[in-house]
Amino acid sequence: MCDRHNKDGDCFEYVESGMPRVPMSCKINGEIVHKMVDPTMTLLQFLHKDMSLFGTKEGCGEGECGACTIKMNGRAVNSCLVLAAEAQGSEIITVEGLSKNGELSVLQKEFIKHDALQCGFCTPGMLMSARALLDKNNDPDLEEVKEAIAGNFCRCTGYFPIIDAILATAKKEREGSDHE
C-alpha cells in the first residue's frame, strides 16, 4: 500500500478534464476491454485508474525514463506519452501479461537469476522493452539488446545483469527450454 492517498484512498490521483468521455476498446493482456475514457487521460493513467494494473510504473511522466514501457501492437512504447483514446483497437501487453497461470515467464526468471532487478522500479519497463525485442528477434546480439533498452534508465544494476538476462532468455527460448 502506498503512503500517499487522495480522499478516495487511491494511490494515483487523476483529475478529469471535464471534456466528454470517448469510447475506447482494446485488448489488454488478452482481455477485451470496452471503456469510456477522458480524452486527456494517458494510457498509463488508464492502466492504473481504470484497469488496476499497477506494474507499469510512472517515473518521469515525459517519456525519458522508460519505467512506463508496455507493448502496444508489438512495439515497446512509453505509456505516459500515449493517450488512452489512441489505444483504440490496439493489443496491449503490460508486465502483468508476461506470466501465465501464475508462472513467471522465462524472461522474468532470468531477470531474477541474473540479479537484474535490484530496486525493481525500472524492471517492468525493462522487461517490456526486452520482450518487444525478443518477439521480433529471437537471436539478438549485444548491440541490439543495448539499443532495445536504451530508453530505459536503471540506477542500480549497471545494465550488465539486465543484458545478461535478456541474452540468456533469448538462448533459452531458441532452445525451447525453461530449465535452470
Keywords:
DNA polymerase, domain 1, 2 domains, Ubiquitin-like (UB roll), 5-stranded mixed sheet, alpha+beta, 180 residues
Shape: globular
Given the helix and strand composition, which structural class is it?
alpha+beta
CATH superfamily of the largest domain: Beta-grasp domain
Number of domains: 2
The description of the largest β-sheet is: 5 strands, mixed
- Percentage beta strand: 5-15%
Oligomer: single chain
Distance between the termini: 33 Å
Blueprint of the fold:
Blueprint: E1 22-28, E2 31-37, H1 43-49, E3 69-72, E4 75-78, E5 91-93, H2 106-113, H3 123-136, H4 142-148, H5 160-175
Parallel strand pairs: 1-5
Antiparallel strand pairs: 1-2, 3-4, 3-5
Overview of this protein structure:
Helices cover 29% and strands 14% of the residues. It is globular, with a radius of gyration of 17 Å. It is an alpha+beta fold. Strands 2-1-5-3-4 form a five-stranded mixed sheet, with helices on one face. It is built from five helices and five strands; from the N terminus they run E-E-H-E-E-E-H-H-H-H. Helix 2 crosses helix 5. It has two domains: 22-97, Beta-grasp domain (Ubiquitin-like (UB roll), Roll); 106-175, [2Fe-2S]-binding domain (DNA polymerase, domain 1), CATH 1.10.150.120.
